[in-house]
Amino acid sequence: MNSKDADKLFEKLSPDQQKRVKNILADKAQTEKILKTPQAQALLKKLMGENKNG
Predict the structure, then answer these.
(1) Crossing angle of helices 38-47/28-35, nearest 10°?
(2) Contact 14, 22 (CB under 8 A)
(3) Tens-digit pLDDT profile for the chain (54 aa)?
(4) 3-state class of 12 per DSSP?
(5) Is 7 strand, coil or helix?
(6) What integer pLDDT is reported at residue 24 of this predicted model?
(7) CA 5/CA 54 separation, integer angstroms
(8) Beta-carbon contacts of residue 21 (< 8 Å; ≥ 6 apart)
(9) What is the dihedral of CA 37, 41, 46, 48, to 10 degrees?
């Protein structure tokens, strides 16, 4: 996933969702905590094309 893909995905969010994402990303500790969850890891693998089953 490159930055253009991320921008396209971000644009599809509602204004409230965009605000939430920006707030989370502004907090490095919160971002790291979220990215370490199994759900986030699975989503990242899927988005990066590493999940051969999906």
Answers:
(1) 80
(2) no
(3) 667 777 888 889 999 999 998 998 899 999 999 999 999 999 888 888 865 554
(4) coil
(5) helix
(6) 87
(7) 19
(8) 10, 13
(9) 140
SS3 letters for 14-51? CHHHHHHHHHHHHCHHHHHHHHCCHHHHHHHHHHCCCC
Q: Give pTM, 2 decimals.
A: 0.55
Q: Rounded CA gap, 18 and 53, in Å? A: 30
6 and 14 Cβ atoms separated by less than 8 Å: no
Cα separation, 53 vs 22, whole angstroms: 31
